[in-house]
From TrEMBL, chains A, B, C, D, E, F:
<keyword id="KW-0812">Transmembrane</keyword>
<dbReference type="InterPro" id="IPR006035">
    <property type="entry name" value="Ureohydrolase"/>
</dbReference>
<keyword id="KW-0378">Hydrolase</keyword>
<comment type="similarity">
    <text>Belongs to the arginase family. Agmatinase subfamily.</text>
</comment>
<protein>
    <submittedName>
        <fullName>Agmatinase</fullName>
    </submittedName>
</protein>
<dbReference type="InterPro" id="IPR023696">
    <property type="entry name" value="Ureohydrolase_dom_sf"/>
</dbReference>
<keyword id="KW-1133">Transmembrane helix</keyword>
<feature type="transmembrane region" description="Helical">
    <location>
        <begin position="296"/>
        <end position="318"/>
    </location>
</feature>
<keyword id="KW-0472">Membrane</keyword>
<keyword id="KW-0479">Metal-binding</keyword>
<dbReference type="Pfam" id="PF00491">
    <property type="entry name" value="Arginase"/>
</dbReference>
<dbReference type="InterPro" id="IPR020855">
    <property type="entry name" value="Ureohydrolase_Mn_BS"/>
</dbReference>
């Protein structure tokens, strides 16, 4: 039974108030079969890779709640994602709160099912290690590029000795090592915060990752950085990951490792809008941690950034379809 | 297509953690057709009858979130409601946030559809005026009794002059006037708070309502009050309404009209368990107002009381089926 | 009995600490008769037109509390409003929390009494529908211009079908229809947030309203926008309305419909200071909703913006007197 | 000009909603001349005697806000205080936030003016040192008895060496030394919390103060303790002081020195109602500290206890008048 | 170098205010060598066994902060623990936030070092799995008894299938299996909350554990339950574990799995005081989770219960010394 | 016994998680003897000079907690302070919470002891009056310059009449009068907020202080203001004081006198980094008031600014050593 396209649209706030009704991403229908959609919005309620303050496991639920404020059309770009694609809430990635390895396996399988169905995953996390299983699915056949908005490079090697190689500080090193990411097509924007040592960024730089520390971002300006993103990524497939801590803590207090002195939401929105034209094969908004939030602000910001990513991803999907 | 009984059970916390997955009442499935269920859990996200602090419109969403902590079997009574009945989340009652009359009409129709299907409604509000449309449905054919846990009698006549006869302070006077409630089979427990005048309770008393002010409750004790409930209500059909403000504000800070000096949750739980044996035809938990809550406590309490009511209502449903 | 001008000055913080004493706007005296003042500070504790999160009914009380931080002289412009005008707190506009029509009537009458006395109203809300009764008073004799700082155009037609034409999303369409506003002398600044459809702004634009979406604001810059305000408004009478949600939610979390990506308070202050020279006949700060605030920040911001408006309005009053 | 008795009544919530209008104690009028009233409600916004967590300076403002929930008639006793007495808000006691001695002088003079006018002071604090200037006024002519609800005896001698003899831990030792209090007619109820040494209570006991530690209170029960209060105090003049920290911290988190394991508000209300019949010449509710409060609960509790004290004080005033 | 006993005493609040100075348990000195002390206060900042809401990793830090309110002598029992024993803060148990097995090893070794030195460990957690490594140390030579205050039995077998046998729901089953606990000398008090199935408690009951569900506790009363504790435990060595969630959530909102309807702090204090006379060889206060707390209340409660346990443990140490 | 330099380094987050272990500044060791260090980090837990909202007494404890997020190397400047200097936490300045004069004496003596040992003090406050005792120590031999980041000039003369000359609004006037500060080498940046009168800044300007109001700061830009700082201060010894309220309240809600419209943390960080090259002889971060904070943001910001100051101060110490 094929449901009509009209099924895949948010409930209107003039039919059911925004505080009412089921709490799904963007007030979209919840569906189980990824074959039905072009873009699969999923939650990844897990923070088992977190070394400091946990809580991102609660991110998806609150991002869903706050996403009820998102309407149908992007105000600045006038992109209407639900006119371009079938989008739905595919529910939460299966996780095991006390078992890191088990969770990585379950999550990888879930993302693989989405990709196998031809859908593009758009994830709300969850700690940043959650990007790794998504990458394992979207990059199963060839390495992809990465646009990473983050205050941390997340390319550490291990933690607490050699044994712990999977934490929210290591996903992109693992991604490079596993051949999921092409470091030459990786760009990290907004890196900041005091360092463990002067060599923290050496691995990334040696691999050829383009690292734009926050000062360089402020000095270059948003438009120049967008150009640099396009230069580094080019036309190949690319994954976008938005760690909410790239924002200054005033915009995103609800996160595990806040770093004072980040970018504003206005700047982040402009950057995300600048991803239009890239061949996005997946994206995520990570590290929203409601227990540390103030007044749902971070969750609202996460939902807004998810909508920004949805619009540019819908554009990419439409572009691929048109090719 | 008839779904198996096994469909109507909460998702296990050992399959999907309690912070994950869709946020429905008790982690039950969401269904649209009341014909499928014996007990219909519904939200009533509306506070348009509120004369002081609004916010109960947000109650159902947060009660759903917190109800994820409810497991399968009642610890004290060992009632297993999902073994007795088919229970599901029927979604939210349709409301109009700025139009009181329109909302009463929409809500009445919604509850009538549930009752027409033979299902028993169990509502999470919303302000206390929301009990009125539920009563219009469950008492359509004959007046019912009422067990009311509340710090306020809610039998005022009007507000701000004659024009405003429907507020959260008037539902049970309207219910009596509309012939929905049999005042001789009404009992109010926990009444307290400073009075507008010494005659505030005269209407209820004159109609024959049994009013147990909080001091009398403390003096009689829980067991005696349970006996009194059964004496007043007898064997006929009865609706139970639990205004969260019957609790002391420490247990329920998130409500619109808190009154210091109320009962504890332990006392309330014992009272609700004491409803077993009554012929419950509907029930509700009202006035949970998340914007005034601290740490989701009131919503958790509301969810717990809803589970208490679910268990005794499931017993009543099973009793009716057995008759 | 005519009270001396010295009566109409804030209590000094060196006589009574700022956390002590009666809580009035700017620590000014409370007076009943608008004949005594040039500028009437009033509260409008009402949010009955709110379609999403209520709470602005509590705005005036908390803005009064926070306005105790406002001293006597504007730091940047050195305007000393109490040297220019008699200003006092005229109390709250009478409202009916559960009756929209009744409230609009009561409020209109209250504002008419102020205007009839020759006083200029400066209002702290309350939801944005509250601007309509003020406009009915100040524009009783001829349409006025409007400078609107807002993330939403508030020129929708109706809500939940045809019946509901008065909500906080419709006041300025009603104002145009009622002949209170001259759309050619209207300017809206800061519009943003996802849209219901691509045609949301069509009505305003067709009427000739100058709409500056937030991106255009950022691109033009504050000085150019101030110039544009003066160009659009010209020398005629004008009302200024500041919806607190024009600010980014970090500056104003306590509001009903926050939209990520707004302007800063620094930008807003510069814009408001730029209103000096306009013939202001009334102004308001709306949509401050304390239940959703964090640490009184939004109320403090609202009080600060009210002081900014007071200074430019005092200038306008002095200008009119000088003419 | 003598104002009619009807002037000295709270604004009705059916005329002006409880969240609207001026924020005064009990929504009573604010008057300046104590000659006009029988009972003077005053705020004492000062915490300069606080050795641990400050913040009680903000108590009066928030107690005023929350007292808007108090109606006209006591629910349990049916005392109607405004039928018995003229009551008004006399504003705040003048204080100097950084000068303890200056504040004690200013406050003493203020209370003396109230007593000289024949009015009975009812104070909302402020830290507990604030009871001392009130005692200096009400006990100017002869020592009075004291009913003290408190988790601390507040009869320490000095702090940080000999120099600091006036802190919120010393007022009742100073009161005894200054001849304001008759220790044989003093009773302290609810004392608890870990001790500095085993001799903390020796001074009070040696003076003849009746000390009921919290365990004795629980063991005796409320009724027996009320009887003990009447036995100790007898028929002479007495001052009642209610330190909000006598309550368990769940009922009063907003205080400077919370002690786990206190009494409930239900118990406190019964105790305060038990003061009817005593010749109350003044009373206070102290140590409400809004910066440490959760959801205004402590302020609401403080306002409720102030209303309880108002009712029994009004009874005492009426009794004195009748003699 | 042997330090004098006077070294092992809290800093006085009359020398350094309670909000100042290093934040250690009870303001005691921090020492590294357990040989120096009789009782070792330790933190266990870890919540890796948590299946629902994490956050107890932050418990020790905040309990230390709040323990600055604890003075020297117990008010009810007049026990002066620092006169009986040398007590100090031994710092935090080493943990690995992302590796459960590694943490159990590190923690076990740490506790073994304490016990080897002859010191008695008193732990502030951390999730309840943290009791297991402590038991492995204190029960290394023979099984011990257990007094468990808890709303959950924590004797589940596994989680998410067979693989996960170590969670905060399993420590006492593991303890029995590992021969650390003598189930015949185990008593659980306060069990409640909805059940997974009617057989949740079967394992414990079959092993001979005495389970007192909350209703039985309320029915028996505190004194009878204390007697029952002594009957079950007898004179042998015993460990006491206090899961903060045994308290009603109003007293302990900051915990991972709150269950409405628990005991009060007054009741818990009486129960803990009733442990005097038992041969306590270790104790803990677990599951304090600051991210979910309101105003530090749960941490203050945790600190208070830790002080209660310290006093009865100091008594036991003195008793052992005297034998 | 001389401890090795390696002793004076933060505990690594890969050895002990950041939420674990003793809470000291930057996770540094706590030492008692200032002879051991080059830079002494100290807390000044006192707010007795505060005229509005108290609470800064709690600043040091929470800044210590949040400083656990600071790693070893400055990200932008790559300064590694612990490679340049021996740094430790010297504990809290002794204070008397209820005695202003006593506190000034105790604090002055404490700072003198640090300076006598040749260490440079770096203070976390505490209200701004606390800068005065530090200045008395560092400027004992000759006046120093001052770089002041602040929204208030803090050069008032007195408060509440002549008697009160020491408040948090007067330290720098007293500093000039006492010959501690050379007004010609003083620069104040960020001054704003409504004024008591148009002459508020006259004293500072007449003394020759360079005052950069916030508008001038925004107009000049950060780089030009850094140049101006260096021009005014020159090569002599200088003290830097950072009042957290120079930041916009969104970045620092937890402060006593917030003023809307301030600078961002990004701007402040750039300014502080611009102090490199000055001969810093002491510095502080003041007015962090946790009771008014949201989610520890202000404390985190304070800790970050303290780390910024630590880096430039370490540079200055190294420069002095190299001379």
């Amino acid at each position: 039974m094929k449901r009509p396209d009209s099924h895949f649209r948010p409930i209107s706030g003039s039919v059911l108030p925004r505080f009412a009704g089921p709490s799904t991403f963007m007030r979209l229908p919840m569906v189980e079969d990824p074959e039905e959609v072009d873009i699969a919005l999923v939650g990844l309620p897990w923070d088992g890779g977190t070394t400091n303050r946990a809580g991102a496991r609660h991110g998806p639920r609150e991002i869903r709640n706050q996403s009820s404020m998102m309407r149908l059309v992007h105000q600045a770009s006038r992109i209407a994602p639900y006119d371009l694609c079938r989008v739905a809430d595919l529910g939460d990635v299966p996780v095991n709160p006390i078992d890191l390895s088990d969770t990585l396996e379950r999550a990888t399988a879930f993302f693989q099912r989405i990709c196998a169905a031809g859908a593009t995953p758009l994830t709300a996390g969850g700690d940043h290690l959650g990007s790794l299983p998504a990458l394992r699915a979207v990059a199963a056949e060839r390495p992809v590029g990465l646009v990473q908005f983050d205050s941390h490079s997340d390319t550490n090697d291990s933690y607490f000795g050699e044994a712990n190689r999977f934490t929210h500080g290591t996903p992109f090193r693992r991604g490079i090592e596993e051949g999921l990411l092409d470091p030459k097509r990786m760009i990290q924007i907004g890196i900041r915060g005091s360092l463990y040592s002067g060599s923290d960024l050496d691995y990334a730089l040696e691999q050829g990752v383009r690292v734009i520390e926050i000062e360089e971002y402020f000095d270059l300006g948003t438009e120049a950085v967008i150009a640099e993103i396009h230069r580094v990524i080019g036309t190949g497939p690319v994954y976008a990951t938005f760690d909410i801590d790239v924002l200054d803590p005033v915009y995103a207090p609800g996160t595990g490792t806040p770093e004072v002195g980040g970018m504003s939401t206005v700047e982040a929105q402009r950057l995300l809008r600048g991803l239009r034209g890239l061949d996005l094969v997946g994206a995520d908004v990570m590290e929203v941690s409601p227990p540390f939030d103030s007044g749902y602000l971070t969750a609202l910001t996460g939902a807004t950034m998810l909508f920004e990513l949805l619009c540019v991803t819908a554009g990419a999907v439409a572009d691929r379809r048109a090719r």
